[in-house]
Design goal:
This protein is an alpha+beta fold. The chain is built from six helices and nine strands. It has helices spanning about 65-70, 130-135, 155-165, 175-180, 185-195, 195-205, and strands spanning about 20-25, 40-45, 50-55, 90-95, 95-105, 115-120, 125, 145-155, 165-170. Strands 1, 2, 3, 4, 5, 6, 7, 8 and 9 form a nine-stranded mixed β-sheet that branches. β2 (about 40-45) and β3 form a beta hairpin. The protein is globular and about 50 Å long. The relative contact order is 0.21.
């Protein structure tokens, strides 16, 4: 999968044939090791390309509170003042593009004009530091996932990868996005599609 330094514009709502607001699930035969056994939430998909956030790759050696300290949102001595629910927030590797930039998927009870994109009725995306400040103050969304970087596809690339049996897709599940443990998200997504993973692995081995 090629990576792009830019992602397609979004905000027009899902168009017929596009996968905004759906989840991609990597097939067992995925050749790109960056995306093996990944679940990706598609934030934008159009004729211009696609952009999504990997939901099950933890960022190594960094916690949410440590990230807030690094961004000077919180002094090191102030970590204990974080709202209790933020202590459970995981920092994810959202994809190989712009890995120094943060993207927050969150519930729609938080919205910033000109910054928040409502992807569907259950999930919004905000990519400005203001949402992190709000979360640190206890004024953020009820549930959120913070990802560093994103996955990007050039025009027609995602469609080609799906046709080549690289990905399955299914409707997004807010419970999987915000609540399920990271290590179980891939298996849960496969079950949601209703496919036996053992059968998939067998078929992939004979492709």
């Amino acid at each position: 999968m090629r990576s792009r330094s830019e992602h397609p514009a979004a905000g027009r709502g899902a168009e017929p044939g596009y996968l905004d607001g759906q989840m991609l699930v990597a097939m067992p035969g995925m050749q790109d090791d960056r995306f093996q056994r990944t679940v990706i939430y598609i934030c934008a998909h159009s004729a211009e390309g696609a952009m999504g956030i990997v939901l099950n790759r933890p960022a190594p050696d960094v916690s949410f509170s440590e990230l807030l300290v690094q961004l000077d949102i919180l002094p090191a001595a102030g970590e204990i003042r974080l709202p209790v629910h933020t202590q459970r927030m995981k920092v994810l590797i959202g994809g190989p593009v712009e890995t120094s930039r943060g993207f927050v998927l969150h519930t729609p009870d938080f919205f910033l004009d000109h910054s928040t994109l409502a992807i569907d009725e259950d999930v919004c995306l905000t990519a400005t530091v203001d949402i992190l400040r709000a979360i640190a103050k206890g004024e953020g969304p009820t549930s959120a996932v913070l990802a560093l970087g994103y996955a990007g596809w050039s025009p027609g690339q995602l469609e080609s990868e799906i046709q080549a049996n690289g990905w399955l897709n299914c409707p997004a599940d807010p419970g999987l996005i915000f609540e399920a443990s990271l290590e179980h998200r891939y298996d849960l997504a496969i079950r949601k599609i209703g496919i036996d993973l053992g059968m998939l692995s067998s078929e992939a081995g004979h492709a």
